[in-house]
Structure prediction request, 248 residues.
Amino acid sequence: MNYDKTADSGSRGSERVQIELLRPHEIEAALRECSTVYLPLGSIEWHCAHLPVGLDGLTAHGVCVHAAVDHGGLVYPALYFGTGGGHSHYPWTVMMARDDQIRALIEHALVRLADFGVRRVVLFSGHFAPAQLDMIAELAAEWNGCGHDMKVIARGINMVEGLPIGPDHAGVFETTMLYALRPDRVDLGQLAAFDLDHPSNDDFEESRHDPSHPLWGVFGPDPRRFDPQLAPALLAGAAAWLAAQAAY
Prediction:
């Protein structure tokens, strides 16, 4: 099946909200308008043969950028070191066994952002293994419990409400979301031929941990069922929800 991959919606106005591209006066001007900084978190992790290994960070960053473009704030580059998820043995997966090194990076960023007078920081993880989500939730609770002026909000992409597709790993949801951001990085032609209606094609069957399975590492609906026409609405819904969380 061929899809139009010419438009990259992830570039829409992104340069004015990506903090690494901005000069100091531009950062300060943006934060005077909306004192929110998004810190996207991801991982380097196998997402089957049709998706890039950096999908979690690409998705988290892309949703944050769209939230900032439409509703204000700035976005840090994605942190591509993640923890948890039970996929550490997969090819091209670099998963941290402990979260303390990742926490140290995030905590130092929070201290410095508070020093700069930022009012809100949103930790948004595209990698939604429980260990990762617990880490950022605990970090946010500890920070907020200390009475800092800057508030920290911790969310994961699996928490987004009101979307037409539920979260998964390398299935329809993650394929559709990445297609909305980077259609050039979705290649269903890399998947082996497999009958969509095959009786063993269970969305979460354990056999998908087997390298010989045509959908090795996919846990969710078969990504070949994804509808590219749903991609813009899926991304817009996630970005609007995230911006609303930042406004709490």
Notes: The CA atoms of residues 87 and 93 lie 7 Å apart. Confidence is low (pLDDT under 50) at residues 1-10. Residues 9-190+201-246 form a domain with the Rossmann fold fold (CATH 3.40.50.10310). The longest helix spans residues 55-71.
